[in-house]
Amino acid sequence: MRSEVITVRTGTRPTVSDITAQAERFVDGAGDGLLHVFVPHATAGVAIIETGSGSDDDLITALDAVLPADNRWRHRHGSPGHGRDHVMPAFVAPYATVPVLGGRLMLGTWQSICLVDPNGDNPSREVRFSFLAG
């Protein structure tokens, strides 16, 4: 197994960050296997979605509708509504696994690997890539 950690600047607002290019560089020439992407944070997740056509903004809008940033949450430290950030990984898991063949990600035409971060309190996130050879 081979592993690497990257840092992604997510800023101070909920965001979806496309990390596909970094994942492609990590598996380039690696052969056949699986890429496991993991976010070691309690308030972030990994999604495989289409980006650039509004789907990334739609995901944030959907999360806001399902998990409003208000005072209904028992977990109350941080900015108002921060408790929803701790629930979000139950909806957008903190991991994803993608097949790799010949050192290339086997994503569909419109699929991208994205870091989903609704938590504006932490402007920087770590993402761990692990390659498991087949």
Structural class: alpha+beta
Question: CATH superfamily, called what?
Answer: YjbQ-like
Give the radius of gyration: 15 Å
Main sheet, how many strands, which sense, barrel?
Answer: 5 strands, antiparallel
Helix residue percentage:
10-25%
Structure description:
The chain has helices at residues 20-27, 55-66, 83-87; strands at 2-9, 15-18, 33-38, 45-49, 95-101, 104-105, 112-117, 124-133. By secondary structure, it is α+β, with helices and mostly antiparallel strands. β5 (95-101) and β6 (104-105) form a beta hairpin. The longest helix has 12 residues, at 55-66. It is elongated, with a radius of gyration of 15 Å. 28% of the residues are buried. The mean pLDDT is 93.
What is the gist of this entry?
Helix content is 19%, strand content 36%. The chain has 134 residues and is an alpha+beta fold. It has one domain (2-133): YjbQ-like (Jelly Rolls, Sandwich), CATH 2.60.120.460.
Features:
single chain, 134 residues, alpha+beta, Jelly Rolls, five-stranded antiparallel beta sheet, three-stranded antiparallel beta sheet, 3 helices, YjbQ-like_sf
Secondary-structure blueprint of this entry?
Elements: E1 2-9, E2 15-18, H1 20-27, E3 33-38, E4 45-49, H2 55-66, H3 83-87, E5 95-101, E6 104-105, E7 112-117, E8 124-133
